[in-house]
Amino acid sequence: MQNSYLLEPTMKNIYLAFVKSCKLYSESTHESFTVMRNCVTELYALDPVSAYQHAFVYIRQLAIHVRNATTSMTEQDIHLVYNWQFVNCLRLWTYMVCQPSLKEAFQPLVYPLVQVIDSTLTLIPTARYYPLRLHCVELYLQLITATGVFIPVAPLLLDLIENDKFLAKSTTTAKPPDVRFLTRIPKTYLASRPVQDAVISKAIALLADYFKLYERHVAFPELAYPVARSLKAYAKKCRVSQWSTATKALATKLEKQIEAVIREREGISGSPMELKNVQVKK
Question: What is the reported pLDDT for 189?
């Protein structure tokens, strides 16, 4: 590439500019975030080999922040991870890993990135940080779709859906903030029914999206059955009709797909790993 000696410092500078500019995230800044993300990606796509070297260094920096927070559990170190700047960096690298122009060069970074995301969402696994967990799960689904890597997402969402604190009576009616633009729920809104509705509804939707990715997989019954069973049990005890109806509907849908895959699987000749022989009708 002509003037390639200028490209590497430019890659560094544009990423650092992105990091400085993504400290906040809201409905009003979403569009600018998308533009910046696309600009960084397009520049890195000019030289995937050099881009990989930069990505390796910067993903490693994110991993170090998470490791320090996990080790020390101090408020300062945790704050370096649980903020929009960190989450938006994870979003950027996930987006780039999934791009066709960078997919091959960035393939070795998939596992390290998954590990960083996992360590991030499990750092403080409390209800206040459920919005951050949902953001991380969205990144997982992008990675699964683009790379085919298996990530056990269902337990992360079931844990959220089945939280007994959300089954308690709501104690506030104040208008809540938009959870799409939160990394954590303010304490005053944790018992707010609208906030809980938004969190639970999003979790159920993501769970449905997750199983949609595997609905034609030969191992779908084994993957989905325990979750369908848990959802049915939850629907019976849940006193919030909206959540009960949604989880029961998802459980029923999973059960129907389980039966369909089992029927098709019974007709497979040879090894069950011959996935091309499984053609489940939608």
Answer: 87
The model carries a pTM of 0.92
Q: Where are the domains of the chain?
A: 1-124, 126-282
Torsion from C-alpha of 15, 17, 21, 23, nearest 10 degrees: 60
Mean pLDDT rounded to a whole number for the chain: 92
Residue type, 206: L
Average pLDDT score over residue span 11-15: 97
Alpha-helical regions (H) of 215-240: 220-237
Cα distance between residue 78 and residue 277, in whole Å: 48
* Cα separation, 15 vs 7, whole angstroms: 12
pLDDT at 145: 97
Contacts 24+ apart (CB under 8 A), 183-186: 183/82, 183/83, 183/84, 183/87, 183/129, 183/131, 183/132, 183/135, 184/82, 184/128, 184/129, 184/131, 184/132, 185/127, 185/128, 185/129, 185/130, 185/131
pLDDT for res 266: 83
Query: Looking at residue 219, what DSSP letter applies?
Result: T
DSSP letter for 168, please.
Answer: S
d(CA 181, CA 183): 7
